[in-house]
Amino acid sequence: MKILTRYGLGAMVTILSLGTPGFASAEMTQREKEEIVEMIIDRIKRDPSIAFELLNTLKQSAKGEAEQARGTLKSSPRMIELVEGNPKGDIVIMDFSDYGCEVCNTQSKALLDAAAQNSRIKIVLRDLPRSGDDALQASVDLIAAASGQKDWRAIRQAYLSGQIKPEMRIVALAEGHSYPSEADRDLAQIALDKNAMLAERSGIEAGPAAIMIIGDQVQLLPSPVTAGKVAEIIAAGPQNQAKTD
Protein backbone atom coordinates (compact mmCIF):
# COMPACT_ATOMS: atom_id res chain seq x y z
CA MET A 1 0.00 0.00 0.00
CA LYS A 2 1.44 3.35 -1.03
CA ILE A 3 0.08 5.08 2.07
CA LEU A 4 2.12 2.75 4.31
CA THR A 5 5.37 3.89 2.69
CA ARG A 6 4.56 7.50 3.55
CA TYR A 7 3.74 7.14 7.25
CA GLY A 8 4.47 4.58 9.99
CA LEU A 9 1.84 2.43 11.71
CA GLY A 10 1.74 4.54 14.88
CA ALA A 11 1.45 7.75 12.88
CA MET A 12 -1.36 6.26 10.82
CA VAL A 13 -3.44 5.44 13.89
CA THR A 14 -2.83 8.91 15.30
CA ILE A 15 -3.74 10.66 12.06
CA LEU A 16 -6.84 8.53 11.55
CA SER A 17 -8.14 8.91 15.10
CA LEU A 18 -7.19 12.52 15.82
CA GLY A 19 -7.81 13.92 12.35
CA THR A 20 -4.40 15.61 12.29
CA PRO A 21 -4.54 18.76 10.13
CA GLY A 22 -2.40 18.58 7.01
CA PHE A 23 -2.70 14.81 6.83
CA ALA A 24 -6.20 13.38 7.26
CA SER A 25 -8.00 16.42 5.87
CA ALA A 26 -5.67 17.48 3.06
CA GLU A 27 -3.55 14.50 1.97
CA MET A 28 -5.52 11.35 2.75
CA THR A 29 -8.33 10.04 0.59
CA GLN A 30 -11.25 8.01 1.95
CA ARG A 31 -9.75 4.90 0.35
CA GLU A 32 -6.44 5.53 2.13
CA LYS A 33 -8.28 5.82 5.44
CA GLU A 34 -10.04 2.50 4.73
CA GLU A 35 -6.69 0.90 3.90
CA ILE A 36 -5.30 2.06 7.23
CA VAL A 37 -8.18 0.53 9.19
CA GLU A 38 -7.79 -2.75 7.26
CA MET A 39 -4.04 -2.70 7.90
CA ILE A 40 -4.49 -2.05 11.64
CA ILE A 41 -6.96 -4.94 11.96
CA ASP A 42 -4.64 -7.28 10.03
CA ARG A 43 -1.60 -6.32 12.14
CA ILE A 44 -3.48 -6.79 15.41
CA LYS A 45 -4.81 -10.19 14.31
CA ARG A 46 -1.24 -11.33 13.58
CA ASP A 47 0.24 -9.79 16.72
CA PRO A 48 -2.30 -8.69 19.39
CA SER A 49 0.51 -7.30 21.57
CA ILE A 50 0.89 -4.28 19.29
CA ALA A 51 -2.52 -3.06 20.47
CA PHE A 52 -0.89 -1.76 23.64
CA GLU A 53 1.91 -0.11 21.65
CA LEU A 54 -0.65 1.68 19.50
CA LEU A 55 -2.52 2.88 22.57
CA ASN A 56 0.71 4.34 23.93
CA THR A 57 1.36 6.07 20.61
CA LEU A 58 -2.05 7.69 20.73
CA LYS A 59 -1.62 8.76 24.34
CA GLN A 60 1.66 10.48 23.52
CA SER A 61 0.07 12.25 20.55
CA ALA A 62 -2.75 13.54 22.73
CA LYS A 63 -0.54 15.04 25.47
CA GLY A 64 -0.65 18.61 24.21
CA GLU A 65 -4.41 18.47 23.78
CA ALA A 66 -4.70 16.95 27.26
CA GLU A 67 -2.89 19.85 28.92
CA GLN A 68 -5.09 22.41 27.21
CA ALA A 69 -8.27 20.49 28.03
CA ARG A 70 -7.20 20.01 31.65
CA GLY A 71 -6.95 23.78 32.05
CA THR A 72 -10.48 24.12 30.71
CA LEU A 73 -11.69 21.45 33.11
CA LYS A 74 -10.24 23.26 36.11
CA SER A 75 -11.78 26.60 35.15
CA SER A 76 -15.24 25.37 34.11
CA PRO A 77 -16.16 21.79 35.09
CA ARG A 78 -18.91 20.29 32.95
CA MET A 79 -20.93 17.12 33.20
CA ILE A 80 -21.44 14.82 30.24
CA GLU A 81 -24.77 13.28 29.31
CA LEU A 82 -24.96 10.92 26.33
CA VAL A 83 -28.40 10.78 24.73
CA GLU A 84 -29.92 8.53 22.08
CA GLY A 85 -33.34 8.98 20.51
CA ASN A 86 -35.03 12.39 20.72
CA PRO A 87 -32.97 14.78 22.90
CA LYS A 88 -36.17 16.74 23.59
CA GLY A 89 -38.38 13.70 24.19
CA ASP A 90 -40.80 13.79 27.12
CA ILE A 91 -40.44 10.06 27.81
CA VAL A 92 -37.04 9.61 29.43
CA ILE A 93 -35.46 6.17 29.79
CA MET A 94 -32.21 5.80 31.72
CA ASP A 95 -30.22 2.85 30.38
CA PHE A 96 -27.91 1.36 33.04
CA SER A 97 -25.63 -0.87 31.03
CA ASP A 98 -22.24 -2.55 30.75
CA TYR A 99 -20.58 -3.18 27.35
CA GLY A 100 -18.96 -6.33 28.71
CA CYS A 101 -22.40 -7.81 29.45
CA GLU A 102 -24.22 -9.44 26.54
CA VAL A 103 -27.62 -9.14 28.21
CA CYS A 104 -26.96 -5.44 28.82
CA ASN A 105 -26.12 -4.90 25.16
CA THR A 106 -29.33 -6.68 24.18
CA GLN A 107 -31.30 -4.28 26.39
CA SER A 108 -29.55 -1.25 24.91
CA LYS A 109 -30.34 -2.40 21.37
CA ALA A 110 -33.99 -2.96 22.36
CA LEU A 111 -34.20 0.58 23.74
CA LEU A 112 -32.74 1.95 20.50
CA ASP A 113 -35.45 0.04 18.62
CA ALA A 114 -38.09 1.49 20.94
CA ALA A 115 -36.79 5.03 20.34
CA ALA A 116 -36.82 4.43 16.58
CA GLN A 117 -40.52 3.51 16.85
CA ASN A 118 -41.51 6.37 19.16
CA SER A 119 -40.13 9.88 18.65
CA ARG A 120 -41.13 10.85 22.21
CA ILE A 121 -38.43 8.64 23.72
CA LYS A 122 -35.18 10.11 25.02
CA ILE A 123 -32.60 7.55 26.14
CA VAL A 124 -30.04 8.76 28.67
CA LEU A 125 -27.03 6.46 28.79
CA ARG A 126 -25.93 5.57 32.32
CA ASP A 127 -22.94 3.32 31.79
CA LEU A 128 -22.37 1.07 34.78
CA PRO A 129 -19.31 -1.03 33.93
CA ARG A 130 -19.06 -3.79 36.51
CA SER A 131 -17.92 -6.78 34.39
CA GLY A 132 -14.22 -5.92 34.30
CA ASP A 133 -11.51 -3.49 33.23
CA ASP A 134 -12.23 -3.83 29.50
CA ALA A 135 -15.80 -2.68 30.09
CA LEU A 136 -14.62 0.17 32.31
CA GLN A 137 -12.10 1.41 29.73
CA ALA A 138 -14.71 1.10 26.97
CA SER A 139 -17.10 3.35 28.89
CA VAL A 140 -14.35 5.83 29.72
CA ASP A 141 -13.29 5.99 26.05
CA LEU A 142 -16.89 6.43 24.90
CA ILE A 143 -17.86 9.19 27.34
CA ALA A 144 -14.52 10.94 26.82
CA ALA A 145 -15.05 10.85 23.05
CA ALA A 146 -18.42 12.53 23.56
CA SER A 147 -16.77 15.15 25.76
CA GLY A 148 -14.30 15.83 22.95
CA GLN A 149 -17.21 16.10 20.49
CA LYS A 150 -16.09 13.05 18.51
CA ASP A 151 -18.30 10.47 16.79
CA TRP A 152 -19.15 8.54 19.97
CA ARG A 153 -22.15 6.80 18.37
CA ALA A 154 -19.86 5.02 15.88
CA ILE A 155 -17.75 3.84 18.81
CA ARG A 156 -20.81 2.69 20.74
CA GLN A 157 -22.08 0.61 17.81
CA ALA A 158 -18.86 -1.41 17.97
CA TYR A 159 -19.10 -1.77 21.74
CA LEU A 160 -22.71 -2.99 21.54
CA SER A 161 -21.38 -5.84 19.42
CA GLY A 162 -19.10 -6.84 22.29
CA GLN A 163 -15.93 -5.40 20.73
CA ILE A 164 -14.30 -4.08 23.90
CA LYS A 165 -10.94 -5.86 23.97
CA PRO A 166 -7.99 -3.45 23.64
CA GLU A 167 -7.32 -4.32 19.99
CA MET A 168 -10.96 -3.82 19.10
CA ARG A 169 -11.23 -0.55 21.04
CA ILE A 170 -8.36 0.85 18.96
CA VAL A 171 -10.28 0.13 15.77
CA ALA A 172 -13.50 1.56 17.24
CA LEU A 173 -11.73 4.75 18.30
CA ALA A 174 -10.18 5.09 14.84
CA GLU A 175 -13.58 4.69 13.19
CA GLY A 176 -14.95 7.35 15.55
CA HIS A 177 -11.97 9.60 14.69
CA SER A 178 -11.17 9.87 18.37
CA TYR A 179 -8.53 9.28 20.95
CA PRO A 180 -9.66 11.14 24.06
CA SER A 181 -7.40 13.48 26.00
CA GLU A 182 -6.58 12.74 29.63
CA ALA A 183 -8.79 15.65 30.72
CA ASP A 184 -11.74 14.21 28.78
CA ARG A 185 -11.07 10.85 30.41
CA ASP A 186 -11.11 12.57 33.81
CA LEU A 187 -14.52 14.00 32.96
CA ALA A 188 -15.68 10.56 31.86
CA GLN A 189 -14.70 9.07 35.22
CA ILE A 190 -16.68 11.80 37.01
CA ALA A 191 -19.70 10.90 34.86
CA LEU A 192 -19.29 7.19 35.71
CA ASP A 193 -19.08 8.01 39.42
CA LYS A 194 -22.31 9.97 39.08
CA ASN A 195 -23.95 7.01 37.33
CA ALA A 196 -22.84 4.68 40.12
CA MET A 197 -24.30 6.98 42.78
CA LEU A 198 -27.59 7.22 40.90
CA ALA A 199 -27.72 3.44 40.50
CA GLU A 200 -27.08 2.94 44.21
CA ARG A 201 -29.86 5.37 45.16
CA SER A 202 -32.17 3.50 42.78
CA GLY A 203 -31.32 0.10 44.24
CA ILE A 204 -29.47 -1.04 41.10
CA GLU A 205 -26.35 -3.11 41.74
CA ALA A 206 -25.45 -3.87 38.12
CA GLY A 207 -26.88 -3.77 34.62
CA PRO A 208 -28.98 -4.37 32.77
CA ALA A 209 -31.56 -2.05 34.27
CA ALA A 210 -33.73 0.69 32.85
CA ILE A 211 -35.77 3.41 34.53
CA MET A 212 -38.60 5.17 32.70
CA ILE A 213 -39.69 8.69 33.63
CA ILE A 214 -42.89 10.22 32.29
CA GLY A 215 -43.80 13.48 34.01
CA ASP A 216 -43.64 12.81 37.74
CA GLN A 217 -44.07 9.05 37.26
CA VAL A 218 -40.91 6.95 37.68
CA GLN A 219 -40.67 3.19 37.31
CA LEU A 220 -38.11 0.44 36.86
CA LEU A 221 -38.82 -1.40 33.61
CA PRO A 222 -39.30 -5.16 34.05
CA SER A 223 -36.61 -7.40 32.55
CA PRO A 224 -36.02 -8.47 29.89
CA VAL A 225 -36.66 -5.11 28.23
CA THR A 226 -37.96 -5.28 24.67
CA ALA A 227 -39.18 -2.59 22.28
CA GLY A 228 -42.66 -4.14 22.37
CA LYS A 229 -42.78 -4.14 26.17
CA VAL A 230 -41.69 -0.49 26.27
CA ALA A 231 -44.48 0.41 23.84
CA GLU A 232 -47.04 -1.46 25.96
CA ILE A 233 -45.96 0.27 29.16
CA ILE A 234 -46.12 3.69 27.52
CA ALA A 235 -49.59 2.95 26.12
CA ALA A 236 -50.86 1.78 29.51
CA GLY A 237 -49.24 4.66 31.41
CA PRO A 238 -46.72 4.16 34.24
CA GLN A 239 -49.32 4.52 36.98
CA ASN A 240 -51.69 1.96 35.41
CA GLN A 241 -48.81 -0.43 34.75
CA ALA A 242 -47.68 -0.23 38.37
CA LYS A 243 -51.21 -1.15 39.53
CA THR A 244 -51.51 -4.15 37.22
CA ASP A 245 -48.11 -5.46 38.35
Explain this structure to me?
The protein is of the alpha+beta class and 245 residues long. The chain has 2 domains: 2-61, no CATH class; 83-244, Glutaredoxin. 59% of the residues lie in helices and 11% in strands. The protein is built from 12 helices and 5 strands. Strands 1-3-2-4-5 form a 5-stranded mixed sheet. β4 (209-214) and β5 (217-220) form a beta hairpin. The longest helix is centred in the last third of the chain and has 20 residues, at 182-201. The protein starts with a helix and ends with a helix.
List strands and helices in order, with pairings.
Elements (H helix, E strand, L loop, with lengths): L1 H5 L2 H10 L11 H17 L3 H12 L1 H13 L7 E3 L5 E7 L4 H16 L3 E7 L5 H15 L4 H9 L5 H10 L6 H20 L7 E6 L2 E4 L6 H10 L1 H7 L1
Parallel strand pairs: 2-3
Antiparallel strand pairs: 1-3, 2-4, 4-5
What labels describe this entry?
245 residues, Glutaredoxin, 5 strands, disordered C terminus
Question: What is shown here, in short?
Answer:
By secondary structure, the protein is of the alpha+beta class. Helix content is 59%, strand content 11%. The chain folds into 2 domains: 2-61, no CATH class; 83-244, Glutaredoxin.
